[in-house]
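User: Predict the structure for this protein chain, please.
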Amino acid sequence: MSSKQPHYSPEQVQAILERALSRNTGGDPTNITHDELLETARELDIDQKALEEAITDYEQTYLLEDARKRWKIRRKAKFFEHFRAYLIVNAVLAAIDLVTSGGTWFFWPLFGWGIGLAFDAAEAFYPKDRDVERGAIRMVQKEQKERQKQERKQQWHNLANGIRKQFTVENKQGKIIIEKGDRRIEIG
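Assistant: Here is the predicted structure, written as structure tokens:
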């Protein structure tokens, strides 16, 4: 009797690999570095250029979709902040009005602000597609700029560490001493 090797669907492969990654990375299957991804692709005989193109495609497609979801969540959170301020401020205004004039004017700010709050609710719970798209694109662009800023900061940090490893600089008795290997310069 011949033993057949099992076959797995793409969904099963993904689920199995996610579980393996989860066990390998301490419970977080999303915790894989770019270098680890490149190494995995090499082991699977996937061309680095093809992988980079797939990453770019992923970023353009899935990251934007994720940004749309996050934008909607943030928009609703902003509405609830606005609603909370509306309730607190109008409760204080109502209390002041009831104590000072018997409750004759607080309805006006309650009504006026309520109109603005209604528009805010409509935008938060029923956003226009173009607003969601614009917000998501801005969010992705902001995140990319922040990532680039962090990468540049890391590059400068690495450069500074490299320079520090090549040179030693000391301040002794009012003199600056710079050493590199067997060479020494004293200033001051």
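The chain has a mean pLDDT of 86.
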